């Protein structure tokens, strides 16, 4: 029997996953507990050993990655749960066992559980690499590496106002007025910046939410940033953006 821990701060999502586990996987998975924050999960893991963790990427002001960074040795398997596909891609990149997009689909959960059974602990080495990477990120102090022909510039993510896609290039616009162009796609940097308060408002634009000063209404509308720049918001991104900004 696989002993599992669910870490999720959204009650509805937690109850949905619990229901599927109890209904479809009661013979193979025993859900030990549901915790809704990093501190609660850490306290539980001091006392209990688990084989599998269902880990939400966003846990209030913290992330599931921060939890992993504080655990030390990781000797269990992980299935990330996230409402953001970008985060799911990041989880795969960092060698997670599997991921589920919310709202969790019953059949996708079954496939993920089957993978866990077949894997049988083989992902431990990959997860240890994940932990080491986040230790390295902490040392960098939330900086992002921007390569150029002459070297690599390390820029604090909070110094970035916005990023603009230009086919296979990305333009970074900084608070001090500088513009840095890197020969990588915006998608590659989106994966790194989303956990630090950035939001993809349009196919061509990723913005620092902390620098938003005004939302101008329209079909999708537009945002005015702290430097006066106006950035269009795609209509399909408007609803989620308003939720993130705390307005309807």
Task: Give a short synopsis of this structure.
By secondary structure, the chain is of the alpha/beta class. The protein is 37% helix and 32% strand.
Write the layout of secondary structure elements.
Layout: E1 2-7, H1 11-24, E2 29-35, H2 38-47, E3 52-56, E4 58-59, E5 62-63, H3 64-71, E6 77-82, H4 85-93, E7 98-101, H5 106-119, H6 124-140, E8 143-147, E9 152-156, E10 160-166, E11 169-174, E12 179-182, H7 186-193, E13 198-202, E14 205-208, E15 212-216, E16 222-225, E17 230-232, H8 235-245
Parallel strand pairs: 1-2, 1-3, 3-6, 6-7
Antiparallel strand pairs: 4-5, 8-9, 10-11, 10-14, 11-12, 13-14, 15-16, 16-17
Helix pairs in contact: 2-3, 3-6
Protein name: LytTR family DNA-binding domain-containing protein
Modified residues (4-aspartylphosphate): 56
Keywords: DNA-binding, Phosphoprotein
User: What is the terminal separation in angstroms?
Assistant: 45 Å
Query: Tell me, what is the CATH class of the largest domain?
Result: Alpha Beta
CATH hierarchy: architecture of the largest domain: 3-Layer(aba) Sandwich
User: How much of the polypeptide forms β-strand, as a percent range?
Assistant: 25-35%
Helix proportion range: 25-40%
Elements, N to C (H/E): EHEHEEEHEHEHHEEEEEHEEEEEH
- Report the biggest beta sheet as strand number plus sense, adding barrel if it closes: 5 strands, parallel
Domain HTH LytTR-type: 144-247
Protein name: LytTR family DNA-binding domain-containing protein
Organism: Algoriphagus confluentis
Keywords: DNA-binding, Phosphoprotein
């Amino acid at each position: 029997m696989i002993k599992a821990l669910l870490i999720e701060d959204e009650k509805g999502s937690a109850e949905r996953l619990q229901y599927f586990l109890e209904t479809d996987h009661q013979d193979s998975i025993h859900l030990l507990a549901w915790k809704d924050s990093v501190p609660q999960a850490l306290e539980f893991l001091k006392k209990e050993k688990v084989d599998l963790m269902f880990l939400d990427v966003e846990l209030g002001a913290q992330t599931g990655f921060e939890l992993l960074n504080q655990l030390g040795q990781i000797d269990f398997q992980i299935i990330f749960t996230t409402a953001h596909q970008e985060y799911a891609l990041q989880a795969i990149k960092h060698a997670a066992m599997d991921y589920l997009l919310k709202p969790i689909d019953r059949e996708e959960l079954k496939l993920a559980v089957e993978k866990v059974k077949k894997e049988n602990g083989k992902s431990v080495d990959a997860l240890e690499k994940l932990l080491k990477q986040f230790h390295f990120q902490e040392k960098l102090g939330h900086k992002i590496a921007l390569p150029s022909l002459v070297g690599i510039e390390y820029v604090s993510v909070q110094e970035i106002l916005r990023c603009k896609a230009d086919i296979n290039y990305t333009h970074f616009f900084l608070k001090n007025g500088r513009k840095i162009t890197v020969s990588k796609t915006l998608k590659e940097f989106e994966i790194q910046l989303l956990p630090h308060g950035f939001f993809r408002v349009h196919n061509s634009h990723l913005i620092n939410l902390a620098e938003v000063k005004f939302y101008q209404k329209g079909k999708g509308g537009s945002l005015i940033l702290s430097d006066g720049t106006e950035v269009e918001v795609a209509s399909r991104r408007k609803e989620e953006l308003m939720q993130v900004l705390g307005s309807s």
